[in-house]
Amino acid sequence: MPWELKSDRPIYTQLIEQIELLIFSGVYPPGAKLPSVRDLAQDAAVNPNTMQRALAKLEEDGLIITHRTSGRSVTEDASIIKKAKTELAQEQVSTFLEKMRLMGFEQKETVEIINGIVGGIKI
Amino acid sequence: MSIILECNNLTKKFGNKAALSSLHLQLERGRIVGLLGPNGSGKTTLIKLANQLLTPTAGDILITGKKPGVETKKIVSYLPERTYLNDWMRVQQIIEFFSDFYVDFNKEKAYEMLRSLNINPDDRLKTMSKGTKEKVQLILVMSREAQLYLLDEPIGGVDPAARDYILKTILSNYNENATVLISTHLISDIENILDYVVFINQGQIVLTSSVDDIRKEKGKSVDALFREVFKC
Amino acid sequence: MLSKLLKYEIKATRRIFGPIYLALLIFAIVNRFTLNFSPEQWQMSAVLSMVVYISIMVGMFVMTLIVMIQRFYKNLLSAEGYLMLTLPIKSWKHIVSKLLVSMLWIIASSLVAMLSILIIALQKGDIAALIRESGPFFQQVYAYVGSWIYLWSIEAVIGFLLCIASGILIVYASIAVGHLFNNHRIFASFGAFVLLNTLSQILIVIVFVPLGNTCFPNFSFNPVDLMAMHCVIQGAIAYLMVITGLLAAAYFALTNYILTKRLNLE
């Protein structure tokens, strides 16, 4: 099944995000070998060149390593993964907080709402 | 040679009407390109010129640096917009035919694709629905190990599930040496598999860009941009 | 590649002729019997079977003509053209393959027609008599004209083939010219046929006949002394063959030009 891709944002940035999620969520744990570009592209139903760009960027960021003879794998360095994960989380939270602010909530109120919901989930 | 298709000042006139005017275009290998434009914009004319089904009025069109002819036909796999096979033939006979004339035709691949679509090779084309005929035609074209695939409206007459299969087939056929040029109206369906798009209108190229550049710079999908550019 | 084209061309056409040839031969046999019936009660059936036989004969030749036209038009200039003309083959090979197969069926039809007539007309002692007479006959001819008979036979065959080819090619050229028009293609093809025939006739009368006269002066036909003027006859025959050949080549060139430079499939 093709990945969920929105139509108004560059595909390759969305691919980067999706692969990061796969790494963060443990589908591709540290050190895991990644499928080939072609296979990933087919899986996602996107152009292989676009997938290639996404993987290249991830490699630049250190999340993925290319081995000369055996393809690509997730980095074994857990700290890089943790850092990227945290960065993503921070981004998401900032976006969320900004949205709440636009709706008229102050930060304190927002935190209360969050606690309320989290508390609800815990049950 | 990394440029697989090149048009220099390409002009094609029918009587006084110019279907293509001084068109310039370069396509590199290893790309999947969308040729997008409204009806009558010159898409089919361009593709026919590449197949030597038409001859230029002026300028030239080159495939791997050569004018369209026997040598280029060996490496170009063409899917016309219409059904073009003899209705009385059985699928298996058509496969033999293609095998006979095209060295790069891969019979096993063709039979495999037919199997996965539940098409019986013994059936005559006459007995098939329009959609199935179009799938057969596509299978024949994609079973060739060509360097340039020219697909004229490959997903027009088929249901969404078949469309997905066709796009999947185009993707799985991908190799860095070959280029696929898809002429279509159904942009949102194929946008994700394209690298580049070429907008053509009234015989001229209006825009060439990568899909992602369009999304980045215009903040919209190619489909949305198309509707904007070609608003009626 | 040409042999492959020939293979497919024959495959595509033989299905039509097999049954027709069979039907013709069967009705020839039927007629052979019914013609030998004298009583009035059989007369109706004799007439009927003769009518059927002749209809089949006529139908066979008509079919040969139709198939010749239809193969060229349908396979190269209609939707199938998208398949055939994008094959990695030069267009002239397409023309040649269709030409050769059309010639094949014309000759085959003629042979089958002759065979069917023989079936009807051949009397008991005929074959034996034919074999008996042919020996002395050929000896006489040979004695009279010598080994020239071989050359003349070959020339006759080639001339015959050239005529058939020329006839087919002028039809192809007419169809191709018709293709140039967007509307009323059939009228245009007929018009082209008439035009090409007329032009050829004019060409023959204006160019070839005077040319022939200057090359072969004092051409008087003396049937008694054929040998004496056999050189002149040779020249004349060769000349005729050259004219036919040139015209056939012209039709071919025109057809090829239209298929390569003026193609416009729908």
For the sheet with most strands of chain A, the description reads:
2 strands, antiparallel
Number of beta strands of chain A: 2
- Average pLDDT, all residues of chain A: 88
User: Which oligomeric form is depicted?
Assistant: heterotrimer
Q: Which strands sit side by side, in order, in the main sheet of chain A?
A: 1-2
Percent range of helical residues of chain A: 55-70%
Structural class category of chain A: mainly alpha
Distance between the termini of chain A: 34 Å
Strand content of chain C: under 5%
* Overall shape of chain C: globular
Strand content of chain A: 5-15%
| Number of self-contained structural domains of chain A | 2
Q: What is the typical, i.e. mean, pLDDT of chain C?
A: 86
The CATH homologous superfamily of the largest domain in chain A is named Winged helix-like DNA-binding domain superfamily/Winged helix DNA-binding domain
CATH architecture of the largest domain in chain A: Orthogonal Bundle
The ordered string of helix (H) and strand (E) elements of chain C is: HHHHHHHH
Shape designation of chain A: elongated
Q: Provide the helix percentage of chain C.
A: over 70%
Give keywords:
heterotrimer; B: 232 residues; alpha/beta; Rossmann fold; 6-stranded mixed sheet; 3-stranded antiparallel sheet; 9 helices; 9 strands; 27% strand; C: 266 residues; mainly alpha; 2 domains; 8 helices; 83% helix
Q: Any overview of this molecule?
A:
The complex is a heterotrimer of chains A (123), B (232) and C (266). Chain A is mainly α. Chain A has helices spanning 11-24, 37-44, 48-60, 78-103, 107-122; strands spanning 64-67, 71-74. Chain A folds into two domains: 11-76, Arc Repressor Mutant, subunit A (Orthogonal Bundle); 79-122. A two-stranded antiparallel sheet of chain A has the order 1-2. The longest helix of chain A is centred in the last third of the chain and has 26 residues, at 78-103. The radius of gyration of chain A is 18 Å and the shape is elongated. In chain A, 23% of the residues are buried. The model of chain A has no long low-confidence stretch (mean pLDDT 88). With 232 residues, chain B is an alpha/beta fold. In chain B, helix 5 runs parallel beside helix 6. The termini of chain B are far apart. The relative contact order of chain B is 0.18. The mean pLDDT of chain B is 92. With 266 residues, chain C is mostly helical. Chain C folds into two domains: 13-122; 136-266, no CATH class. Chain C has eight helices and no strands. In chain C, helix 1 packs antiparallel against helix 2 (40-77) and helix 7 runs antiparallel to helix 8. The longest helix of chain C is centred in the N-terminal third of the chain and has 38 residues, at 40-77. Chain A binds chain B through residues 2, 5, 7-12, 38, 41-42, 44-50, 53, and chain B through 30-32, 164, 167-168, 171-172, 174, 188, 191-195, 211-212, 215-216, 219-221, 223-224.
